[in-house]
Amino acid sequence: MTAPPRREPDAPVAASAPSQALTTAEVAPAPSPGAGPGGVSPVAVRPLWPEGPPPGNPEGYGPVELLVIQPTPFCNLDCDYCYLPSRDDRQRLAMATLDAALDRVLESPYVGGDFTLLWHAGEPLTLPIAFYDAASARIAAALERHPSRQLTIHQSVQTNAMVINDAWCDCFVRNRIHVGVSLDGPAFLHDRHRRTRTGLPSHAATMRGIAALQRHAIHFQVICVLTEEALHHPDELFHFFVDHGIHDLAFNMEETEGENLESTLSRPHSEALYTSFLQRFWQLWIENPSQLRLREFEGICDLADTDSRIDHTDMNHPFAIVNVDASGRLSSFDPELLAVRTDEYGDFVLGDVHHDSLSAVAATAKFRRIARELRAGIERCRAECDYFGLCGGGAGSNKYWEHRRFDGTETQACRYRIKLTSDVVLSGLEAMLGLPAA
Ligand code: SF4
Known about the structure:
By secondary structure, this protein is an alpha/beta fold. It contains 13 helices and twelve strands. 36% of the residues lie in helices and 12% in strands. The chain has a ten-stranded mixed sheet with strand order 7-6-5-4-3-2-1-8-9-12. Strands 10-11 form a two-stranded antiparallel ribbon. α1 links the parallel β1 (66-69) and β2 (115-119). The chain binds iron/sulfur cluster.
């Protein structure tokens, strides 16, 4: 299974996230070098809708940043930490469903400009190249059906890269598809979790795919899932990526959610181990400038450097993300929520692109309940957490899986992704600047 990509709050680079309604004074202070978490400093805030939300969108939902579409639930891997059910379902997205998904988004009052269509949730490249050629033509046709939308839909795919060859590379170039690869470092770490249904390792095939991308000079970002085993090997991870010409990296934490009922990062001492891992990785990162972009470090450094803060994330703001599965079922917020069923909420499906507008979805009781609870969680985070300006209140799926509700605050996921990471980065910056530890 392809490791799920994450945007916010893994990537607190979206300093543009504050909502329209907030003013500078209302945004919680967040760290700057020398201040430590919670230090007070001026805060840069950029409104989501600078001209005000368009007619039909009085709540200021969106703008849509990401349209996540599942081309198939099927995956050619069976990773033991995967959250998705139905990984052996070979259903395929119909082109008519893609048309409907694009129409629902483009006709909605929640589009503000360019956005990214991410092919994800299953292994997208188990479908043929012809699917993506046809889909790219349908995307162009959809934009022609909505001529008032002067925007670009960027395509991106998150893949385990096992089938990438020269023909796939030509397809990516031809259709301008950005590539994200799921790779957990050297084989002894990667193959521990990322295996086929028959137990075969996948590292060699993924590296062949990466070699093809490199032959074609196609830029790609790697997402590396950190399990507890990886935390013992910061040097091996750093040098593996650099030595293989991989220069753009993001870490995802193994999380307890969906089908993955227990994370190895829940074990005793894992948080201390993670801190040691990050401290060593920071040291290597600083000692080897320009060798590796790391989303986690750069995101926090950027916020500190520009004195910017975030006050929500794409994951917890309505219609920043729209998710559509292979049958046309529709949701917002975290893509992780679309595929699962729970006792408390039933499922998180909010509509169907074949017959429900996004505005109609926003009026449903289920959407309003989720949005209201998420908002309450954000406000509690804002009031209680010194790290709020670096985080924006977390992801609903993490809060749900750990608290069985959306209006909670701290989770194991946010301790790893935000709190421990911020502490390491800010301590590192303070040391570089010769400042006393906060
Ligand atoms: S408690 Fe966690 S989710 Fe909430 S703002 Fe703080 S770091 Fe983010």
